[in-house]
Amino acid sequence: MSAAAASLIRPVVICGPSGTGKSTLLKKLMAEFPGKFGFSVSHTTRAPRPGEEAGVSYHYVTRDAFLDLVRQDGFIEHAEFSGNMYGTSVQAVEDVKKGGKMCILDIDTQGVKLIKANHPYLNPLYVFISPPSLASLKTRLTGRGTESDASMAARLAAAVGELEYAKSGAFDVVVVNDDLERAYRALRQVIVEGKTDAGDRLPDFAAEQ
Ligand SMILES: Nc1ncnc2c1ncn2[C@@H]1O[C@H](COP(=O)(O)OP(=O)(O)OP(=O)(O)O)[C@@H](O)[C@H]1O
């Protein structure tokens, strides 16, 4: 693929409350279109674990190198977890594109705001995966069986903020994950066929709160 053709592959930002089904939908997309999509390789200051591969699992860097890149505005977002720094670099997103693949960025609304503010030239398609209702989101989080009560409450509170942000019109496309197969078809049309009008209307959550 020529550099010009590669530059036409817009990254896709997938955002939505925890438990709304982003991973489930993306897994289906990757399974149906192997090789078409790529995830950016994150940077970390932590040591590699057995079985991990540099440049594939992560870019392993020193804290100094990491902080240099922060100063150069080289990260879309970065954070520190239990003493180690992690980040998604602009370069890593560009690398996926250069490899001829569509970069999928699964990030939260904070990350979306950072791209819009600091890296608008990445020009991603912003897609919001919405639950059909807050009640269904709660059911899915419960069904997944991975959350404690406190974590569940935090995720639901965060969801309300994320839905408010989506309501402000920050996303190009909304896909409501009501019926999984229907939602998947809509998402596939949007991402693979470029039909951005195949999305849904954001449900009105106000009545539930
Ligand atoms: N359309 C759907 N109908 C019913 N259940 C669904 C649907 N889509 C996903 N689920 C289920 O909801 C749960 C949450 O889905 P998933 O883990 O994909 O969410 P997520 O948005 O990736 O969450 P996180 O941001 O926390 O990683 C899973 O148990 C999944 O099987």
From TrEMBL:
Ranges of residues in domain Guanylate kinase-like: 9-192
Pfam families: Guanylate_kin
Known EC number: 2.7.4.8
Homology family: Belongs to the guanylate kinase family.
NCBIfam families xref list: guanyl_kin (TIGR03263)
Protein's recorded name: Guanylate kinase
Keyword Transferase: yes
GO cellular component: cytosol
One annotated GO molecular function: GMP kinase activity
Enzyme superclass (EC): transferase
Protein origin, superkingdom: Eukaryota
Keywords tagged on the record: ATP-binding, Kinase, Nucleotide-binding, Transferase
